[in-house]
Amino acid sequence: MHLTDLRWPDVAALPKSTPVVFPVAALEQHGHHLPLYTDSFLLGEIVRRTEARLRDRVLFAPLQWLGNSDHHIDFPGTISAPPRLYLDLLIGLAENFLRHGFQRLVFLNGHGGNDVPGRQVVFELRQRYRTRKDLLLLFATYWNLGSEPSPGFQQSEMGHACEWETSMILRLAPHLVGNHQEAKPVSPTVSFHPAARGWITRDRSEVGHIGMPHAATAEKGEILFERFAGDATRFLEQVLAWDGASWA
């Protein structure tokens, strides 16, 4: 069910064990061939498919399109909340529903740049409410929920404006896709493992994409949407089944 469709007495009447999902994405550059709203388009479709499977068992807040995209800010059109501001924004969203008595809060993420601050958000919230034994505070990125890469894909993991994202936009809104067939493959930069390097997007890609957008098809996009919606559904079913202690 969608928060936007309810009246406040409807929300008040919900069991406080109802999971509340905050979809969080971004509005940022996606190379020369994909729209700025790509991350939000994609997460919105995954939420739509997931909500259709779970219905009144899970409450979905409206998608938050403002993300932590400072690393993309060199590319015009990108809109970003600086990291500390973004942390406080998500903490505030969660605290609204903690005040309303809800106990299972989930941030479902669709933008890689939100991952580090999102994890920090649930860490800080847990410290703030450390005496509570009934809270489940989670942050999860949809492409990290368990599916293995499918045969026929050239990429084995998510990139940026890559084969995966381009395929999904081709499935969802093909009229918004530029000439992806002419986009040259851009490999990820050298890893500094075990250290973590501070970087901006231009350190990794001058054109703004990372991966193989030329390999994208709408058929691959449908496979990915179904895979990710299935992952999100199974994950939220785990949240529903949480008994306050174990995690199966």
> Widest sheet: strand order?
2-1-3-4
What distance lies between the first and last C-alpha atoms, to the nearest angstrom?
25 Å
Second-tier CATH architecture of one domain? 3-Layer(aba) Sandwich
Which fold name corresponds to the CATH topology of one domain? Rossmann fold
Poorly predicted ranges = none
Structural class: alpha/beta
As a percent range, the share of helical residues equals 25-40%
The description of the largest β-sheet is: 4 strands, parallel
- Number of H/I helices: 7
Structure explained in plain terms:
By secondary structure, the protein is an alpha/beta fold. It has a domain at 3-148 and 229-241: Creatininase (Rossmann fold). It is built from seven helices and four strands. The chain has a four-stranded parallel β-sheet with strand order 2-1-3-4, sandwiched between helices. The two termini are 25 Å apart. 40% of the residues are buried.
